[in-house]
Amino acid sequence: MEIKVLGTGCASCKALYETVKQAVAELGIEATVIKEEDLMQIMNYNVMSMPGLVINEKVVSAGKKLSVADVKVFLTK
User: Which of the residues are catalytic?
Assistant: First the structure.
């Protein structure tokens, strides 16, 4: 599984990255977590509000502060 946190380095983006890492660890799943800060790459996902969450190249959330529980829901779908 590949998970990308899209964001340009704002506090919310950094927080989501840490939240995703925590959720992956708690679920014990094998995943690569990538922090994508390149604006050109982010624009490829058509995400206009940060942070964005992409799982296996599919945008599942944008512009929301997610809890560990929220992220776990996306990871277990």
Answer: 10, 13
What's the pTM value of the predicted model, to 2 decimals? Answer: 0.94
Give the burial class of 3: count Cβ atoms within 10 A of its Cβ; 0-12 exposed, 13-18 middle, 19 or more buried: buried
With a cut of 70, which residues of the chain have pLDDT below it? none
Contacts of residues 25-31 at CB distance under 8 Å and 24 or more positions apart, as own/partner, are 26/68, 26/72, 27/72, 27/75, 27/76, 29/1, 29/75, 30/1, 31/1, 31/2, 31/3, 31/75
Average pLDDT, the chain: 96
